[in-house]
Design goal:
By secondary structure, the chain is mostly helical. Helices cover 44% and strands 4% of the residues. The strands form 3 sheets. Strands 1-2 form a two-stranded antiparallel ribbon. One of its GO terms (molecular function) is electron transfer activity.
């Protein structure tokens, strides 16, 4: 009886392993000789350049100080470090031997030319929504870049997470392949914004929380999430900013990297605006603005804006703690001269901290990072610099100012363990440049 039971269990195991192997197997696609650059129509290449910008391909596939698109950019995940790959048309270490069919399969299905499954750090769960025409344009652009020989770096994933066949199981659970399906009742502009946001620009990859297996929580889209030691704020009505993100503010922010009522694009959002979306035409930026204004229910919250602005300006005009509160005086010495707004107006280049998104978030990380490391001339508003106070102020000083702003500029509860959080953020350093 025991022998028959063991034989049965072994048979089930063999069948299970065989079934999973069949599920995971994908055929290789034959390599090709790289097509001549002249074989791609210039207008197709130009269109691909716009799409590559919208997809932040250079941002993720270029290591700090490295050649464009040659890979090696370190992406920290909850499971270990994954390095981006070389997507230049170099034959041995890049995608020079990839046919358009192989490239399209990678974009739509997350499978490499050799048949191996790609890790979802490559956002094929968003790129699957792209039309074949847009994938063809991206292929034309990538295959006309300068080939760079750059061998892939070894990922820092532990066993068995480093086994690519296991990605087939992940896909079975979390991946929904298929092109974007329009919603005609929403109108052409809204659908264009949705196609960009959910597809090539993969906004949910940063702004949507992930489950324990690293998949986006689809039922909680755009609800905010930690990313690269920052916090990507909610894009839904849950965003705690005092002034709701209107369509006009979204368009201005996505086009220029600065919002009068929310602050500037810093951290991971800076290259999104200045290196990626900068290539999109104004019509596409307007479409993204319309789409996310709808996601955030901006119209329903419009009445909240003016009272919030008036409260912020009133606080600028009279800070009751300044004469006797040492922390208020520290804030006045370090911050107030640049962040003061008066005359009944808010100046976009002097962000009002009573309105700034970072002060209202439930997590103080963004505020602390900006206080410690500042905002460079190529981030945020072009040419405007905020100095970092990491060399000048202690963890306790930074924590005091953050607590003061939270208490005086918002009605939200105090952040706990601020000094410990400041120390942790300082230990992380500024991050990749």
């Amino acid at each position: 009886m025991l022998k028959r039971t063991l034989i049965g269990l072994m048979s089930l195991l063999v069948i299970g392993v065989g079934g999973f192997a069949a599920l995971a197997w994908r055929p290789a696609i034959a390599p090709i000789t790289p097509p001549a650059v002249s074989s791609f129509a210039p207008d197709l290449v130009a269109r691909g350049a716009v799409l590559a910008g919208a997809g932040y391909c250079a941002t993720c596939h270029t290591a700090p100080g490295g050649a464009p698109y040659a890979g090696g950019y370190a992406m920290q995940t909850g499971f270990g470090t994954i390095y981006s790959t070389n997507i230049t048309p170099e034959v041995e270490t890049g995608i020079g031997s990839w046919s358009e069919a192989a490239f399209r399969r990678a974009m739509h299905s997350g499978v490499s030319r050799d048949g191996s499954h790609l890790f979802p750090a490559f956002p094929y769960d968003h790129f699957t929504k792209l039309t074949d025409a847009d994938v063809a344009a991206l292929y034309a652009y990538m295959m006309t870049r300068t080939p760079v020989r750059a061998a892939p770096l070894e990922n820092g994933l532990p066993f068995p997470l480093n086994l690519r066949p296991l990605q087939a199981g992940w896909k079975l659970l979390f991946f929904q392949p298929g092109r974007y399906v329009e919603q005609p009742a929403r109108g052409e502009v809204w659908n264009r914004g949705a196609y960009l946001a959910e597809g090539i620009s993969h906004c949910g990859a940063c702004h949507t929380p992930r489950n324990a297996l690293g998949a986006e929580e689809r039922g909680n889209a755009f609800a905010g999430a930690p990313i690269d030691h920052w916090v990507a704020p909610p894009l839904t009505k849950a965003n705690p900013s005092p002034v709701p993100w209107s369509q006009d503010e979204l368009v201005t922010y996505l086009r220029r990297g600065v919002s009068r009522f929310h602050g500037v694009a810093a951290g991971p959002m800076s290259p999104v605006v200045h290196d990626g979306l900068a290539r999109l035409p104004d019509a596409d930026i307007a479409a993204l603005g319309l789409y996310f204004a709808d996601v955030g229910q901006a119209a329903a919250r419009a009445a909240e804006a003016q009272p919030a602005i008036e409260r912020a300006l009133a606080m600028n005009a009279h800070d009751p703690g300044l004469p006797y509160d040492p922390t208020a005086r520290l804030y006045a010495a370090a911050c107030a001269s640049c962040h003061f707004n008066g005359g009944g107006q808010v100046n976009a280049l002097r962000p009002d901290l009573a309105l700034n998104s970072a002060v209202s978030l439930s997590d103080p990380t963004n505020l602390i990072r900006v206080m410690l490391y500042g905002v460079t001339a190529r981030e945020g508003a072009p040419g405007i610099v905020m100095p970092g106070f990491a060399p000048a102020l202690s963890d306790a000083d930074i924590a005091r100012i953050a607590a003061y702003l939270r208490a005086t500029r918002t009605s939200h509860p105090a952040w706990p363990d601020l000094e410990k959080t400041v120390a942790a953020v300082r230990a992380q350093g500024r991050g990749q440049e």
